[in-house]
Amino acid sequence: MQFKMIQPDDCHLHVRSGAALKSIIGMTVAQMGRAIIMPNLNSPVTNATQARIYKEEILSVLPKGSKFNPLMVLYLTDNTTSKDIQEAIDSGVVAAKLYPVGVTTNSDGGVTNITKLYPTLESMQKLGMLLLMHGEVTRNEVDIFDREAVFIDEVLNQVVNNFPELKIVFEHITTKDAVDFVLTSHHKIAATITPHHLLANRNDMLVGGIKPHYFCLPVLKRKNPHQLALLYAATSGNTKFFLGTDSAPHAKTDKESACGCAGIFTAHCAIELYATAFERQNALDKLEGFASKFGADFYNLPHNTQTITLKKQDWVVPASYPFAHSDIVPFMATKTLGWKLI
Ligand code: NCD
Ligand code: ZN
Predict the structure, then answer these.
(1) Could you tell me the residue range of the domain that residue 319 belongs to?
(2) Comparing C-alpha atoms, which of 220, 182, 169, 174 is closest to residue 331?
(3) What CATH code is carried by the domain that includes residue 104?
(4) Of 119, 4, 35, nearest to 299 (Cα)?
(5) Strand 130-133 with 95-98, pairing
(6) pLDDT tens digits, residue range 171-192?
(7) How many helices (H) and strands (E) does the chain have?
(8) Can you tell me the distance from the alpha carbon of 189 to that of 76, in angstroms, rounded to the nearest whole number?
(9) How far apart are CA 245 and CA 228, in angstroms?
(10) In the annotation, is 246 catalytic?
């Protein structure tokens, strides 16, 4: 059995830079027409010039003849101005990303208090620039498993109420609270869902020994009700939920460490992972909308004109891939998957 679908877009992707970028970009290019490129480099992408330089770097390492289109994102800081937003828009940047300070990899320069940025959000609303949010609070007293739900109460509600015309993507949602929030909010609020949050829960990370390759942020939650709510949302056909892998490569040694980095690498077989999840829900007919239409529609982009073909075929995910000057352990390493991109 095999089926064709419109080529997907990855609406949340980390590709890094330099040697790391070179070693992994081909995997995304083989699957996706476009990707929304996350700006959390070691030196974050905080202005239009840096976005242009980063885009040029990505384009320069694409395989010959590739039509892959990296769509750039601005990293918001306490100092991002309306002028920065205007300049970013003028140079083709499609969105700006909120990282609460300290929330995840390379977020030290993130935003300390969103209300300080309200004038900038006002401009984004006026200019039609999307706001992408890493939706977790970072206060030490808030339990890591509750940080997304608390973010909805303390931050997201206020932003949505204060900026009713602002388009927001609640990134890599992980809880039923987030699903319910998106379902009950207006049409300018959407969310990305990762393949690992559909296929795994915190037991996969913690039962039988701690598994660093299942550690990401926001951290995997309980199966019931959270993973089940995400599966429901992704396969519902609701246009507010779309594909964003949050593939976040880190070298094997940086993951298998006393203080392992957050991030799960899924770019090697992103669409196969989603197909696996959708098939389990008996909803393969809903995959194309989620993967190839709803994200593009939300970003006001045309659908891709190419198609991809997925074949029902068992294959074993490699134990590792080369990554920069070392190697990386991919999600589902050594496990058998039932779908293959051909
Ligand atoms: C991401 C990374 O490594 O850049 N890590 C992760 O666990 N998802 C950053 C992020 O999106 O939080
Ligand atoms: Zn991310």
Answers:
(1) 2-341
(2) 220
(3) 3.20.20.140
(4) 35
(5) parallel
(6) 999 999 999 999 999 999 999 9
(7) 14, 13
(8) 19
(9) 18
(10) yes
pLDDT tens-place string over residues 253-274: 999 999 999 999 999 999 999 9
222 labelled ligand-binding = no
Ligand 1 centroid from CA 107, angstroms: 9
Best CA proximity match to 340, nearest among 264, 290, 296, 279: 279
Task: Name the token pair of 340.
Answer: 């293959």
Task: Tell me the best of 21, 40, 73, 323 to mutate to test the pocket of ligand 1, counting ligand atoms within 8 Å of each CB and taking the most.
Answer: 40
| CA triple 175-179-185, angle to 5 deg | 140
pTM value > 0.90: yes
Distance CA 306, CA 185 (A): 33
Number of structural domains the chain divides into: 1
Pocket test for ligand 1, best of 14, 196, 254 (most atoms within 8 A of CB): 14
How many angstroms does the Cα of residue 105 sit away from the middle of ligand 1?
A: 6
Atom 5 in ligand 1: residue holding the nearest Cα: 263
Question: Which ligand is in closest contact with the Cα of 102?
Answer: 1
Helices (H), the chain: 18-29, 48-60, 82-90, 118-127, 147-151, 157-162, 176-184, 195-199, 202-206, 228-234, 252-255, 270-280, 287-288, 294-298
